């Protein structure tokens, strides 16, 4: 019994580090607009802010604000200025990084937009060529149908003529045969 409890406790202790991972990637709503609230967010969380403004701060910035707050409580203005300078420097770094990232994204977006427009132009030209080819094939099919119709009509006419020619030859042969037989019969 004790070994089962020990095994369960060891299993629980092994799974304990995974608890923060299970909470990642969640959808969280920020809707406490009338006062201050603290939310714990982790990487992958999506935050929907339902107020007109909010302040989101990482742990490094929080420590700078906390140090400045503590220094203001103590009345030590030198440390307070250093804390604010560190905060301003951190904000400047964040702004410069954001500007650099925006410029890189803008460059990628412009490149993607130009590539998309070029691909669209090529596709439009290809569609135009295919459309022209289909029109040519359709026109050739129509001409072929007219030619086949004329050929069928010609073949049918020739069949009728052929039948009449055979009939005329047969009647002519019969007439000649009767005439020859009549002449031979009269000569005897």
TrEMBL record:
Keyword annotations: Membrane, Signal, Transmembrane, Transmembrane helix
Ranges that cross the membrane: 167-187
Protein name: Secreted protein
Signal peptide: 1-23
Keyword Transmembrane helix on entry: yes
């Amino acid at each position: 019994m004790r070994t089962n409890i020990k095994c369960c406790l060891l299993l629980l202790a092994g799974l304990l580090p995974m608890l923060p991972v299970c909470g990642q990637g969640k959808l969280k709503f920020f809707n406490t607009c009338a006062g201050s609230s603290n939310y714990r967010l982790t990487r992958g969380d999506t935050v929907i802010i339902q107020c007109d403004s909010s302040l989101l701060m990482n742990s490094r910035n929080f420590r700078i604000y906390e140090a400045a707050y503590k220094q203001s409580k103590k009345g030590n203005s030198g440390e307070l200025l250093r804390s604010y300078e560190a905060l301003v420097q951190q904000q400047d770094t964040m702004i410069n990084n954001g500007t650099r990232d925006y410029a890189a994204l803008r460059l990628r977006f412009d490149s993607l937009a130009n590539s998309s427009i070029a691909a669209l132009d090529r596709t439009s030209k290809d569609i135009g060529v295919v459309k022209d080819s289909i029109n040519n094939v359709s026109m050739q099919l129509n001409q072929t149908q007219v030619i086949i119709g004329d050929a069928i009509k010609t073949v049918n006419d020739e069949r009728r003529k052929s039948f009449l020619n055979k009939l005329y030859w047969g009647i002519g042969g019969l007439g000649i045969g009767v005439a020859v037989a009549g002449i031979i019969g009269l000569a005897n």
